[in-house]
Amino acid sequence: MHIALQREEILKPLGYVAGVVEKRQTLPILSFILLREQGGELTLTGTDLEVEIITKVGTKAQGMESITLPARKLFDICRALPEAASIDLRKDGDKAIIKSGKSRFSLLTLPVSDFPSIQTSQWDLTIKIKQGDLKRLLTQTHFCMAQQDMRYFLNGLLFEFGPNRLRVVGTDGHRMAISDAVLENPINTPKQAIVPRKGVHEMSRLLEDADNTVEVSLNQNHIQVRSDSFTFTSKLIDGKYPDYAKVVPASQSKIIHIGRDTMREALSRTAILSNEKYRGVRLVLDDKTLKISAHNPEQEEAQEEIAADYAGDTLEIGFNVSYMIEAISALQGDKVVLGMSDANSSCTISAPEAKTPLYVIMPMRL
Predict the structure, then answer these.
(1) Which of 343, 344, 335 shows the shortest CA–CA distance to 310?
(2) How far is residue 50's CA from residue 148's CA, in Å, rounded to a whole number?
(3) Cα separation of 301 and 319, whole Å?
(4) Which residues of 123-162 are buried (b: 16+ CB within 10 A; e: fewer)?
(5) I need a labelling partner for 284 at 20 to 30 A (CA). Which of 30, 102, 173, 339 fits?
(6) pLDDT 10s digits, 322-338
C-alpha cells in the first residue's frame, strides 16, 4: 500500500476526525483512525462508539488497502511538518512508514477488522438545510446545555423537526435558549431528538458558515449529518425532554429596549466585582435608566448606569451575570429587548422584532 499526498490536503480533515477520538480509551482501537478507499477517494474515520466522523481527503485512492493509525500521533506529525510538505505513507507489515523530506516516522497499526462502526438502521426522516443555518442554531443554543446533570436529558440539545422549521432548544434548568431555522420542504410528521453534548460540539466544529446544503437524517437512535466533505453520526439521548414551552412567559408587563453593546459592556465591567461563585448582579429598572450593581464577600462594589428605553414602575431583580452576557453576545444587531414582569419571574432576552433566538433566564436572590 502506498499513499502520496500534501500536508494541507490531510491536515484539516484529520483534525476533525482526531478530535472525536478520546485520549484515554478502554479499547486500544478507539484511539486509532481508519484510512480507507470510499468511492475512489481517501476517507478518514474516527469514533468513540457514541459519535462517528468520516471526512474526505482530496486524494485518489483506488485499490488502496485499508489501514488504522494512531489518531493523535498522526495528527501531531502532520501538523509539525513544514507547510506544503509532501507526505508518503506506506504499510510495512504491522507498521506504517511515513516519509516527508528527510523526516521518517514508523507508526504501529492495528487490524482493520477490529475498527468499530456505528450501525444505523433505516432513517425515519431526512431534511435539507443550509450548513450556515444549522451552525447558527448550534451557536445560539449550545452554551445553555447542562454539564453532567443528573437529569441526563438536559446534557444535550433538543432538535425539534416541525412542519416547516427546525427548532433547537437548550436548557440547564436555570436558563433556556430557543432558535429556529426555516425549512424549504414541509415535514409531515413532527419529531424530536436529543443530541448529546459531545455530538453537539463535534457537529459544530464540522459545520461552516456557508450556503451549501447538508442532509440531516433521523431515526429512533441516531442523527446523521452529511455534506460533500464529511459524514457525522451520533447516538441520541434516550429520554423525554421537558415541555420547554411552559417555561416561556406568556406575557410580560415590562419591556425594555437597550443598546446591545452598551448592555454587554456594562455587565462585563460589573461582573469583575461580582461573587466568583454565584456571579450575581442586581438590576434596578427605573424611568429611562437601568442601574447594574454587584458586590462580593470582600465588600467591594461595582455600579453602572445606562440609558434604557423604558417608562414604567421601578423593578429590582437579580440575575447570573454570565448567563446574561452569553445570551446578549449570541444576538445580532444594535439593540436587545428585555422582557420582565416582577422580581420573581423569568427574564426574556431577544432581538427586536425577532421571535428567535429567544433566551429565558431565571432570577436569583441577592
Answers:
(1) 335
(2) 16
(3) 16
(4) eebebebbbbbbbbbbbbbbbbbbeeeeeebbbbbbbbbe
(5) 173
(6) 999 999 999 999 999 99
